[in-house]
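Collaborator request, handled under Task 6.
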Amino acid sequence: MVKKKSYIALLSAALAASVALTGCAGGSQNAGGSNAGGGTSAEQGSASGGAANGGKILIATQTPLSGSQSSLGDAIKTGAEYALSLRQEEFKKMGFDLQLFPQDDQADPKIGVSNAEMLISNPDVMGVVGHLNSGVAIPSSVKYEEGKLVMVSPANTAVTLTEEGKKTVHRICARDDAQGPKAAIYAKNSLGVKTAFLIHDKTAYGQGLADQVKAQFEKDGVTVHGYEGITQGEKDYSAVLNQVIAKNPDIIFYGGLYPEGGILIKQAREKGYKGYFMGGDGLDSSDMIKIAGDAVDGVVFTSVAGDVEQTAEGKKWAEEYRKVTKKPLETYSVYGYDSMNVILNGLEEAIKANGGKKPTREQVLEAVHNTKDFQGQFTKVTFDEKGDNASADVFIYKYEKGKDRSTFVGKAE
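Structure tokens returned to the collaborator:
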């Protein structure tokens, strides 16, 4: 089991040094390309005096560490790094030099696949925490399957990911077919909406979530006045928002991420839209506040990640996380942490089953795949045959003017 508390005081200083070495989003380590940061980190780690008889074991992360989505990508990486650092000494006593191998997928499917090819070609890589984007995870998972490399995602919600029969693919969060319907039900029952306009970003995640919300709205008698796609990276969404203003729906539901979501709500308010604005976990970033400004007030979103600070133990963990990592706590920070610990738990089990020797990827995969009732810092994890977590939930958050992060509303029912 994970020893959450016993290592914290001993290893806080070590993690701070590790964070400095591996760098953060936009740092010089990542400037040379998506593989540069990971390679440098692993080489520095193995050269830092952690020589072990059992050899080196690398656990990778794959998230955007540069670009517009880097705040969430870095939060996942930092959470995973924090978890790994707290168990490095434990694995060292077993004879292994355990190191993080972070990769920047830049939220780009081509780069994610290229990184995945590199990871499966390195025999020391035993697992991957990632991705942030389902549209990157789905094609990358083809490579993980080829290399028998286990993947545990903290954030991918697209239904397709675990419906393609790949044994290597796992996630600790809920799927879109849970998040979407619950978002629509909350909008109807708690916000009282009767009409809606849906916008999505044409990605596997954004459109997949919007599809689920649309289906539930139609089932529940909420009139859908429009369903339109936008292009990521654009700065002016007047064309689609003019349609919204003309229809004047009770709610705009956006399936997509915070860079575009922040612009959409800001421009909608500037055009005089007074209704609700809602989205999924893609809006879950402190950068949403920076982009939208005061227009963020009242924005509601569902998330497949809960608020770790709702308990005394969680508050203590969050305080230590901020202190050690010197990073803000995003909702997905603890999901990166828990995903890493699921892999490390499986790795430990595989080592024991292999007589204390370095296991094969297949052995690690089997151990992770068989995870049952594993209690992470926030999430309980039991994988079904598809790799979905039987214990996953959906939660409601909202943004309020003057606050630097979203407010937890409660569990979506």
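The cover message to the collaborator said: "Residues 185 and 371 are 31 Å apart (CA to CA). Confidence is low (pLDDT under 50) at residues 1-51. Please let us know whether this matches your experimental observations."
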